[in-house]
Amino acid sequence: MSFLSQLLYPVYEARLARAIKGKPQPRHVAIMADGNRRWAREAGFTDISHGHRQGAKKISEMISWCKDTDIEVVTIYLLSTENLKRSTQEVQLLFDIISDVVKHLSEGDLDCQIRLVGHLDLLPAEVTEKMRAAAQATEDNKGVIVNIAVGYGGRQEIVDAVQNLIRDEAQKGHSTEEIADSVTADAITSHLYTKGLPDPDLVIRTSGEQRLSGFLLWQAAYSEIWFTDTYWPAFRRVDFLRALRDYSQRSRRFGK
User: Fold this and answer.
1) Where along this sequence does the record place binding of Mg(2+) (predicted)?
2) Residues 83, 96, 160, 168: which is the catalytic one?
3) Residue range 221-235, pLDDT digits in tens
4) Each residue of 97-147: pLDDT tens digit?
5) Which terminal CB of the chain, N or C, has fewer other CB atoms within 10 Å?
6) Contact predicate 178/169, CB 8 Å
């Protein structure tokens, strides 16, 4: 960043912050934190773990940006079921980094409430236990709710929701016909990993990719989507504010 850019950046950032004051803002922002490996390669690092670690540092920073907004819930996509197919070494690295992220957020001063969303049975037991213990320590916090999507797949979430709904109805002794009638949109929603929370108003994806990649397929049916070419480790508050400004200027439509 040039010297002139360094001088102008705070001015532009403040201008963006003023621009969204009093304007419609999302309650729930979902973020696809993508581009860690590409950022590391383009920055000249041969070890891609540097990109993952820089991306991890960005998470708490981003949550702090929500302080002066109307955002109540943040969902961060950190590890998909497809990511579990990467090399054993990289997957273990991701487990370690994500576990550290959850622990850091639970011990920090953000006062956020952490929830884990995903098919946690796919993860090693010690990893799941470590993250659950850290998340449980935040249950009484009053700040932003932070959903950590790990071992997550949108299709798998819907399958899990329907299966759990059917099991619940079967335990009540209902007939096949009654169980079939119980499978409604509202009933499925109440069995999702994010049950009890509003659907995301805004989905942000970094790194230039323009697809959902299975992220919150059910919940994001009517979400506004904002793409940026910026890689996640390089994502700045000014980028975040641009996304919020763009959201405030859109006319949301449901069902069209």
Assistant:
1) 34, 224
2) 83
3) 999 999 999 999 999
4) 999 999 999 998 999 999 999 999 989 999 999 999 999 999 999 999 999
5) C
6) yes
Predicted TM-score (pTM) above 0.90: yes
d(CA 231, CA 249): 24
Those residues with Cβ within 8 angstroms of residue 188's Cβ, 6 or more apart along the chain or in another chain = 158, 161, 162, 165, 218
Whole-number Å distance between alpha carbons of 98 and 209 = 22
Which residues are documented as binding site for substrate?
35-39, 52, 80-82, 86, 205, 211-213
SS (H, E, C) 122-161: HCCHHHHHHHHHHHHCCCCCCCCEEEEEEEECHHHHHHHH
Residue list, annotated binding site for Mg(2+): 34, 224
Is 141 annotated as catalytic?
no
CB atoms within 10 A of CB 124: 11
- Specify whether 164 is catalytic: no
